[in-house]
Write a structure and sequence with these properties.
Shape: globular
Order of helices and strands: EHHEHHHEEH
Strand order of the largest sheet: 1-2
Helix content: 40-55%
Strand content: 15-25%
Length: about 190
């Protein structure tokens, strides 16, 4: 199997409803107004991490991906450029639940984009006008996620022509429980 590293990136694309793409543009304008200049790709990366953190599926593996592009809605294709570790974790999630990566991003935009705005604009020491407002909004949420890494590992246990057995693991590692040196090491191992 190929080695998966967070320093290498996967180039692909996602299909998004025009409404969701406009929400990303509006969020970028709000960030820019407050001196934070994120690319679409950085916002996608952060939203995917929130999505993976919030997923609690307990069912059996699906038999295939569900259809996403419904007739009558306007969709467009956008580039996606994320690191291999995060992409592998997303594919693991997609294969298990039957949801495409495009659908995951669409849901993350609708559900987690406000949380991303509140968490970044309300940070301690942020030089943002109205940071107390954003911080108060974020503190009113029931689930607050401190910054974290996502690590993905896949291990082939047997592959002999008769039997294929492998395991995949995605792990959430909170930065608050790590030392400065451990954070530095995680930056080279995790997303």
């Amino acid at each position: 199997m190929k080695e998966i590293r967070p320093t290498k990136h996967q180039k692909t694309s996602v299909s998004l409803p025009d409404v969701s793409y406009r929400r990303i543009g509006a969020a970028r304008l709000i960030f820019a107004r407050h001196g934070i200049h994120y690319s679409e790709q950085e916002i996608y990366r952060r939203l995917f991490k929130f999505f993976l953190k919030g997923w609690r599926g307990h069912g059996r593996k699906t038999n295939g991906l569900r259809r996403y592009n419904a007739d009558g809605k306007s969709y467009s294709i956008h580039p996606l450029y994320i690191n291999q570790v995060l992409y592998a974790a997303l594919w693991q999630r997609a294969l298990h639940s039957g949801e495409s990566i495009s659908r995951m991003l669409d849901v993350a935009i609708r559900v987690y984009l406000p949380r991303l705005l509140e968490s970044l604009l309300g940070q301690e020491g942020a030089q943002v006008r109205g940071s107390r407002y954003w911080k108060r909004r974020y503190q009113n949420r029931t689930n607050q996620y401190p910054d974290f890494f996502i690590n993905y590992e896949c291990q082939t246990e047997a592959n002999d022509g008769v039997w294929l057995s492998y395991s995949q693991q995605t792990q959430i590692i909170y930065k608050t429980s790590l030392s400065l040196m451990e954070i530095w090491q995680m930056m080279h191992r995790a997303a």
